[in-house]
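JOB MANIFEST
job_type = single_chain_structure
chain_count = 1
residues = 205
[input]
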Amino acid sequence: MRSMRVVCRKQSRGYTAVEVMMAMGLLGLGTAGVLSSLKTVTIGATGVRDFDTATNLAQSWVERVRTDATAWISETTFGNANLLASGSTGNAFLPARAYGTETVQAGSDLRGTDLAPTDTNTKFCAGLRFRCLATSGAAAPGCASIVVTVAVFFPREGATAADTPFCTVNNALTAIPAAGADRSAAFDSTFRTVTISTVVGPTLQ
């Protein structure tokens, strides 16, 4: 009888304070690891989403320029190709184009909807540069074809050096520098950039 009572007391013994504290510590470490992983996954997912949106915007601007180029009907004049005419200096610029009552602009929100560059909801910025294919000079009437470079840039996650507003001509000039020049390291540490190039020519009639 005595031995059975001893066994029962041993089996019903509770956890000591030290054991409880150790268990809580291990649980806390595990929870911290899970939360850290969730934060990393969230930041990664946001980065992928932003890069995907920027890529789609860059492709959209390429198509807009190609559509605009269909109004370029002579090597001697841009005619109604307003986007091509607005970038005839050969330098990067912020594009804007009116289609009837709708105006497409350089800024975009998180969903890719066009916004004014100065709009507080602007998350992405599109810059364009047009240059003659045969020379390094400006895109002007007389070019047989034009190289179109589209750069969509947006602040990196956690970057604190971005201007407000960041969608400016100066940043567009940095995003698409002059021929032979590289973007500054400071710009690339502040912004992510998606760049696409294509070639357009006049629709001779």
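[summary]
The two ends are 113 Å apart (CA to CA).
The mean pLDDT is 82.
exit_status = 0
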